[in-house]
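Sequence only, no structure available. Ideas?
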Amino acid sequence: MTPADLLVAVPCKDEVGRVGDLAAALARLDPRPGAVLALDDGSNDGTAQALREAGIPTLLHRGNRGLGAARNTLWRRAERLGLQAIAYLDADVDPPVDHVGRVAALLEDGVSGVGGRNVDAEEGWVDAWRARFWPQALGEEATDDAAMLIGANAAYRLSALADVGGFDERHTSHGEDVELGRRLRAAGHRLRYEPSLIVRHRRVDRPRDLVRSCYLHCREGMRATLRNPGPGTTPTDLVQGMAQKAIWAPGAALVKRRDPREALLGVAACSAGLAGYAVGWIRP
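Reply:
I predicted one. Tokens follow.
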């Protein structure tokens, strides 16, 4: 795989305030990918116009169809462009200059997908909490048998996506990466996780934003797990893990950092996660 075989793709929804940083990050990429493409998924804030004014080629969904559909539109366009793989980035991440070259090198023969970590910039106390207790990563060890890849920093061979029919469009904002990973593995595809492949997360959250995200992440993660049973994480594993986090995250905030504010956030976020798992289990 070479950089010229890759499409760097960015699904966007109401991201007008991030377009400037995104354009600068994409312009810095060296080596260059075969193509760069954004998709505006029915934004209401002028995102599409801002993307085009910034010089980023942009596709449009006339209405909001959701993240799963946006990812599908992008990889199918990559097929029509004659490319071999797609590297997804979120609009609020900052990839390193050599990101495309590293992804291409890691997508060697026998690997259907490769991804890494999305590391919080820790610009506020909420982001610092998330970085410590809810990291967007799969651990510190590299593996060629990852269960899934973090959507904000994931690349796939187009042949693998076509083999399983792409993303499940029922996942409109979260969980599409979990669901795809389970289907790819069930179909015999191999996913590589490389923790040194890092993009920086530039989003700054408020407490309620984080709590809502935790709820949606867990609800859709449970639905993805139930829809694709098989080896690996089970629904019971998910609930048990969150129950444990609901104990140790607030405890660590109080004992180690002596910060009641962080402890309260931990209680709220983990409770939202448990509620999300419950709703996802009851209404898969």
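The beta strands are 6-12, 35-41, 58-61, 85-89, 93-94, 113-120, 153-157, 191-201.
Hope that gets you unstuck.
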